[in-house]
Every structure is written in structure tokens, then in C-alpha cells.
Amino acid sequence: MTSHSSLHDTTMTMGATSAVALLLIALVWLAYLSGVWRTRRQKPWPWWRTLLFTAGCATLAVAFWPSLMHAAHQDVRMHMVVHLLLGMFAPLGLVFATPMTLLLRNLPSGGGRRLVRFLGTWPMRVLTHPVTAAILDIGGMYLLYMTSLYAHSLHTPWLSNVLHLHFVISGALFTWAIAGPDPAPHRPGWRTRMAVLFIAMAAHATLGKLLYAFGFPRGTGADIEELQQAAVWMYYWGDLAEAVLVAVLMLAWLRRRRRMARPAGAASDMRPS
Amino acid sequence: MAVQPPVAQDVRRTMIAAILLGIGFMAAIDEIIFHQLLAWHHFIDTGSTALALASDGILHTMELVLFIVGAFMMIELHGRRAQAPGYRGPGFLLGMGGFQTFDGIVDHKILGLHQVRYVEHVWLYDIAWIGAGLILLAIGWKLLQRARQGQATSQH
């Protein structure tokens, strides 16, 4: 097979991937909207949650847009933009739109109970633990960029599709495990989640510097300047998405402290501390 | 005569929050002005070891997280009117000066992550960099003494 025809194949496959991805995104978005519409007579669903979900879906759609996908295939900097959109920014919108809560509202009570029981089984609890989520998310990035996996994915359409899916799922899983607003009875405490978030952020920042200093990912034929620009974008834009997670955890801390302060203030005459 | 401070003032937490904000503010100045706008600093010197890169990654994350934590601590203190007014300035300056001095000595000289500027006589820049940190520390210390004596401007 000549290189020209394999390039043509890749282009065709990417077009198909784009079409399927955009269709799926549209279906998920419509499902969310219909869920909101069906239960509108119960407690009204906050409009900003719908807005967040729409923004998350729009971010995914931009990342899967054919022209951006082609550019990302040619240029490691554009790949990094797609990676940031799929793995870091889209999950913020999707997770903080609490799709699980909406799903539970729409399920009949038996189905809801089954879903909650399924999420409480030990394999699901291991999978959704913040440590597992961090290893899948950040560990996956080390594997992708520090080995030949990335270069390999450029010539292997199915691998490239799996990686895109992995970005979205592991990014959403990490965001949900650390700071997801959906009720989660088995989630570890605030301190554990803050500690895992800190370690994951430090590992992400270190990866950015490693890519820059040692010219990873290798075997792509990209200039060192392009690789370094991609690393710098990953470092600073990654910071922004992670800072949002820190702020959400701190907001939870602030609320809990204020809740605790109120009854304690009333009882302070009896129990001076 | 100085007005008696309200009983509920939380000096310790005000100091901690102000120091965290100072560290984060100085780190932000470093990233925005010296790395991005002036482009004096390199993102990282390519000769750095993986260990130096990891310690840089941890430090950078600490700056970012501590800044957000400091901001939320300040909001929480403000909400229950427990900020100790005379201690915010000194804490902020001590945080700024502490970070600047640490950055100048550990990051630039010991770990060798990057230099202040890539010119001849870089030691002149190093002296200015670390000197600026020490001056901020000295001013912060002086203001802290005044706050302890109840003489800070914001305490009247």
C-alpha cells in the first residue's frame, strides 16, 4: 500500500469518526434536554445546569469537528488543543450539569434503585475511586506521550478513536470522582480528594515540563518548537481547568464551615473551646 | 488611644491566609511578567534533570492551590468578621518576599531550573532578584511588629 492511499484511508476514517461522534453528542444532548422537559413539573431544573451541559456538548463537538480533527492529526499543537478540550474542559461542563441526578429523576423508582445498587458494587466503587480515576487520567497521559503510543496512534485509526474516547471518559471520571456535585455515598472524604487532586496536578505539571525539556512525544516528525509549544499549552491551560476543581472543593469547605459555625455560635456559652 | 480590637479577631488564620495570598501573588507575577510578557525566564532549561522538573511541578502546583486556599480562607474570615486588620499587609508582604527569596535561591541557583535573564553578569540580576525578596521580607517583618504593638494604620 502506498503512503498516499494510506493517508487517504486515514482521512476517510477520520470523517467517519467525526460523523459518528457528532451524532452521538447530539443524541446525548437531546436526551438531557428531554430529561429536563419530562420532569419540569417536579422541582424546576436549574437553567444553568442545562447551560453547562450544552457548553460541555458544544466543547466536545468542536473537538470532533472534521477540520480540527484533520489539523490535530497533522500538528501536535492542535492535538494538544483537542486533548485539552476533550479531557479537561468538556468534563467540567458535563459533570457539573449533574446528569446522574437528572437520570435518577427520570427513572422509575425500581430502575433508580438498581442503578444506585450497581454504582455501589465493589468494581464500580474501585473504578470511581479518585485514586483510580487519577491513575487512568494522568497515568494514561504519561503512557501516551512518553512512549511510542502517540506516534503509533497517528497511523492506526482505531487506536486514535480509542484514545479520544479515553480522554473524554477518564477526564469526566476524574472530575466526577474529585468534585462531582452528584450525590455519591461511597466517595472518600474531602481531605483524600484534595490530596489526590494535588498529586494529580503536580504530576500533570511535571509531565508538561518533561515533554518540553526532553522533546516528547517522539517519532512524530514534529519540530522541537512545536512540541515545546504543545507542552506549554498543556501546562498552562491544564492549570486553569484544575484550578476550577480546587475552587469547587474549597467552596464545599466554605459551606461546611459556615454550616458548622451557626449551631456552634449558639451553643458557645455552654462549651467554650 | 488605640481602639480595643474586637474579641473575635483571628490573627493566626488572617496571617496564614495573607501569607498564602502573598506567595500566590508573587508566583503569578513571576509567571505572567517574567515568563510571558518579558520572556526573560525560560519555561524550563533543557539541561534540567527529571528530579528538578518534578520538584518544579510540585512547587508550581503548591503556588496555585495555596493561592486559591488563601482566597477562600480570607472570604471565610470576612464572612464571620474575624479578619485581623493589621496583619493582612504584613502577611501578604512576608508571603511575597518569602517566595521571591526562595525562588531566587532554590529554583534559580540550587535546582537550576532557569535563570533570571540569559545575559552576561547574571549575578547582578540574581542579587536584584534575591535582594527584592529580602527587602519585601524586611518591610513585612517591620509591619508585623507594628501590628503586634497595635500601631498598624489599619488598626486605628
Automatic annotation (TrEMBL), chain A:
Location in the cell: Cell membrane
Alphabetical keyword list: Cell membrane, Membrane, Transmembrane, Transmembrane helix
Annotated protein name in UniProt: Membrane protein
Membrane-related topology note: Multi-pass membrane protein
Main subcellular location: membrane
Bilayer-spanning residue ranges: 12-35, 47-68, 80-105, 126-145, 165-182, 194-214, 234-254
Entry-linked Pfam families: Caa3_CtaG
Organism (species): Kushneria pakistanensis
InterPro entries for this protein: Caa3_assmbl_CtaG-rel
TrEMBL record, chain B:
Transmembrane segments: 15-38, 50-75, 122-144
Keywords: Membrane, Transmembrane, Transmembrane helix
Domain of life of the native organism: Bacteria
Pfam families per the UniProt record, alphabetical: DUF2243
Protein name according to UniProt: Membrane protein
Organism expressing this protein natively: Kushneria pakistanensis
